[in-house]
Design a protein that fits this description.
disordered N terminus, 3 strands, 17 helices, 439 residues, mainly alpha, single chain, 4% strand, 2 domains
Length: 439
């Protein structure tokens, strides 16, 4: 008789050595951490299966917008657990990276349930990588940089910085109090819009559209938008549609907030708006600054932040180059997203980090928030005018809507392309050697 144990018998022995009740609880907990941190559905599902498999168990996972339901199965025994209602999801790439790192250790042989439980608890309680004032300053710089990328002058740069700082501060204050996400977005957009409008009234800037829109852009739910399309591409239709509607409603709240600010200040945002392109060198600088703010907001570990900046430069500067060569905006966005996606996949493999930690900060500056906001304002003006709405306004609003939809689709496909080409999940990378740089 052979003394060599099969992998199946080893799995049975491992599962028999650990209480199913505890394994099911920890399986649910790691999935919940990833889900709350805005990891895409495929990553959550993959992580839960890998964790349960390390203990010789099968798992069945049901993900809804508000909670997770996990059933861990071993032979004829099973345990079903559901988490409490998931609070408003935030983008927390440090938590995603830490959960993924712990998962790799479990796959490499960590079986101390107390240590795993302590590790997951530490991830849930960990403090943000960056202080709130650092985040406010970084996002204000992002708003100002976006105004430059859209063709704004230096006066508009300063106004966008001030408006972005006020909106970000209010957003973080309301977030600490767990205020409704849509109310938070509306109020943050409104207060930043009022400050932008006052600056225009005082003649600090003669570019009102960029003063308003650049400050609103930093509130855009870029990650849920891109994740929604990726979920649908990977056949997670329920979650994809849920994320999409959440992102659309949030964008609508931001647009209405900016519209209210125009009513309060008497400064209008023109629906049609021309934007100019920066030289490639200047575009690269401001693309890097714009990406840096999102990296702070998304709590990307500082050792990896430079990769996100590199991806941001690659995506936006590549798109600008394509536009300078005469390509249309949607095609340029697709090519830019492909550049960021392949770079993110390369560094994710090398650093054993989540792909999304690099990809999303890299492409989020290309999310067509200004198009979405102007479309919302256009619809509100059409409603106000009724049957007398000008044909030019209607056609421009529909064109903005179509451009926004196709740009989001192009960006999502570009980001997802490396995953689809490799035919396996980017987080299953345990076979690679560890680099010298830790997470």
């Amino acid at each position: 008789m052979s003394s060599i144990l099969t992998s199946a018998s080893i799995a049975v022995m491992i599962a028999a050595a650990f209480p199913l009740e505890e394994v099911s609880y920890l399986t649910l907990q790691i999935g919940r951490i990833l889900f709350e941190s805005n990891a895409d559905t495929n990553q959550v599902e993959n992580a839960v299966k890998r964790f349960a498999s390390a203990f010789g168990c099968d798992v069945h996972l049901v993900i809804t917008w508000e909670s997770l339901l996990v059933t861990v199965i071993h032979q004829d025994a099973f345990r079903t657990r559901t988490g409490n209602r998931v609070p408003t999801m935030i983008v927390n790439m440090a938590a995603v990276a830490a959960a993924n790192s712990l998962l790799v250790r479990v796959e490499e042989g960590l079986r101390d349930l107390d240590e795993i439980r302590s590790g997951l608890a530490a991830i849930e309680k960990q403090r943000p990588t960056y202080s709130r004032w650092m985040v406010i300053a970084a996002l204000s710089l992002t708003a100002a940089s976006l105004s430059r990328l859209f063709g704004g002058d230096w006066a508009t740069f300063g106004v966008a910085f001030l408006a972005g700082a006020a909106g970000t501060w209010l957003r973080m204050e309301l977030g600490k109090r767990q205020a409704n996400a849509f109310l938070t977005a509306f109020l943050a957009a409104a207060i930043s819009g009022v400050i932008a409008g006052i600056a225009v009234i005082l003649k600090w800037s003669d570019q009102p559209a960029l003063c308003f829109l650049a400050a609103g852009m930093i509130i855009v739910p870029g990650v849920p938008l891109v994740n929604s399309v990726q979920d649908m591409i990977k056949n997670h239709m329920t979650m994809g549609v849920s994320r999409l509607f959440f992102a659309v409603l949030l964008t609508l709240a931001i647009g209405v907030g900016l519209f209210v600010a125009t009513l309060l200040t008497g400064v209008s945002i023109p629906v049609p708006e021309e934007s100019s392109l920066l030289p490639l060198g200047e575009d690269a600088v401001f693309s890097a600054l714009a990406a840096l703010g999102y990296l702070f907001l998304f709590n990307v570990p500082w050792r990896l932040a430079w990769v996100g900046v590199l991806c941001g430069v690659a995506s936006h500067t590549t798109r600008t180059f394509c536009l300078l060569q005469g390509l249309d905006l949607v095609t340029g966005s697709l090519i830019g997203a492909l550049a960021a996606g392949f770079l993110a996949a390369l560094f994710a493999r090398w650093f054993r980090a989540p792909f999304s930690a690099f990809a999303f900060p890299g492409v989020v500056a290309m999310i067509p928030g200004s198009y979405a906001f102007r479309a919302v304002i256009g619809y509100l003006e059409i409603i106000k005018a009724g049957a007398t709405a000008p044909i030019a306004l209607v056609s421009e609003t529909l064109a903005l809507t179509a451009t926004c939809l196709f740009m989001v689709l192009a960006i999502a496909i570009g980001v997802a392309a490396p995953m689809m080409i490799r035919h396996k999940n980017a987080y299953s990378i345990t076979h690679l050697p560890r680099p010298n740089t830790p997470l």
